């Protein structure tokens, strides 16, 4: 049942961590549980299954709990890998935006210097310079930003 719950709720990281700690706690308490059950086996069984080495309890109790803990651990590692990839992609996108912003600011400063020198008065040569000197934008947002800048210089 816990195995099914751990698979169904694999997206809920908090529950997965609770289940992981619960499974490891169950494995940790197996030795004490084996001693208690070995002392009281006559009240619930016809034969003593609980030897001093704890083989029976380890097989039927600790084994499944360890399998569940391993499944939760592997799922957590996959989730962490996915999170690291998303974080790195966002970082690279942010760096690309900063680089594009710096290039745009650099080219606009050059265009403003040209305009202050009187180059292209009454013409759209600033638009041509802007289009040819700026890097090609990678998304529509930057494209719209560049077109807005170009139009404001032309008119």
Automatic annotation (TrEMBL):
One of its GO terms (cellular component) is nuclear membrane. The chain crosses the membrane at residues 65-85. Pfam families: TMEM18. Keywords: Membrane, Transmembrane, Transmembrane helix. InterPro entries: TMEM18. This is Uncharacterized protein. It comes from Capsicum annuum (Capsicum pepper).
């Amino acid at each position: 049942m816990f195995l099914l719950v751990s698979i169904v709720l694999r997206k809920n990281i908090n529950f997965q961590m609770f289940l992981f700690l619960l499974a490891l706690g169950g494995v940790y308490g197996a030795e004490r549980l084996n001693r208690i059950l070995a002392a009281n086996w006559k009240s619930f069984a016809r034969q003593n299954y609980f030897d001093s080495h704890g083989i029976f309890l380890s097989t039927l109790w600790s084994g499944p709990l360890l399998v569940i803990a391993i499944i939760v651990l592997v799922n957590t590692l996959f989730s962490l890998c996915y999170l690291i990839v998303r974080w790195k992609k966002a970082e690279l996108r942010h760096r690309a935006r900063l680089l594009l912003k710096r290039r745009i600011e650099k080219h606009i400063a050059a265009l403003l210097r040209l305009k202050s020198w009187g180059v292209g008065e009454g013409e759209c040569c600033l638009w041509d310079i802007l289009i040819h000197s700026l890097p090609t934008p990678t998304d529509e947002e930057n494209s719209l930003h560049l077109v807005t800048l170009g139009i404001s210089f032309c008119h």
